[in-house]
Amino acid sequence: MILASIPSPETAVWYANLGFVEIPIRAYTLCMVAGVVLASVVTSRRMRSRGAPPTAALDIAVWAVPFGIVGARLYHVVTTPEKYWGVGGEGILGTLRVWEGGIGIWGAVAGGALGAWIACRQLKLSYTLLADCIAVGLPLGQVVARLGNWFNNELYGGRTDLPWGLEVHRMSGGSAVLGADGRPVMLGGLHHPTFLYEMVWNLGVAGLVYWLDRRYRFGRGRAFALYVMAYTAGRAWIETIRSDEALVFFGQRLNVWVAILVFLCALAYFLLRRGPRDYLLPAPGGEGHLTVTEEEFLAHRAAAESQAESQAESRNEAATEPDEAPTKG
After folding, report:
1. Which DSSP state fits 251?
2. Is residue 13 over pLDDT 50?
3. Residue 41: is its pLDDT beyond 50?
4. Residue 218 pLDDT > 80, yes or no?
5. Do 63 and 119 touch, CB atoms closer than 8 A?
6. Angstrom distance (rounded) from CA 254 to CA 239
7. Which of 25, 26, 42, 214 is such that its CA lies 20 to 30 A from the CA of 150?
8. Rounded CA gap, 30 and 32, in Å?
9. Nearest-CA neighbor of 221 among 272, 281, 289, 270?
10. Number of other residues whose CB lies within 10 A of the CB of residue 180
């Protein structure tokens, strides 16, 4: 007897009829966009607190997001080549249909990192400052984006009798397949909601990075390395219970080995890299920014606030002084 379970949506795509054309509105895309927005807002707040201009995060996102999408798609295509280049594969046109699903987080991070690096070079901003600031926003964005897998009825694990087991529909074209009785066709039994496990894990990762970064004030990209270590530690075990098709090497899914390798690289960086937090001050001449220490940043901000207070007092005194009109004898 099933005492409790998590239901799945029967529809992942809606259509807006404009009269002359129908525009598909995909839940997966909406979740991805919402995740990007949340990550950008959190990152922007953290960057502004360290001296970055208000639009810096948005300017960087303009480069990072497209590069991330391309990287994510390339990783998926390379690691699942039979779907596109095997017998009956979809070919080059299939690789371009990103809206049908199929992206990889490792490619997204690599591509997004390249796009962000290009943006930082153009804006003359510290790349490691960006990395440390995004270390909280990125996992929060991943939490929201993973909801798209729930709508698509995908990325579930093996069978389970746990009360949070997931009901899964057979999907086609963004909707549940209907049986002869007109009811949605379900997969047998309940399945591990691996997308939910990753959502919960990423929420914990964001909290962990935020707490440790406030306490130890990491710099030089070490907060980002901490995020990578925490994320990959969870991703490795979550991959072992997923049931979707994947390349397997030495008895483990490819993504498990990638997670282990990335974890070790992040750990080495975290242990070997040292240095204070980066802060930004406007460069002389108004072009770019200077990377300074926290002490220099706070001293500059205190001086600016003192100057602003002095100017405000001067204006108040000038406004309260009585007018001295000339008198005639």
Report:
1. T
2. yes
3. yes
4. yes
5. yes
6. 9
7. 42
8. 5
9. 270
10. 6
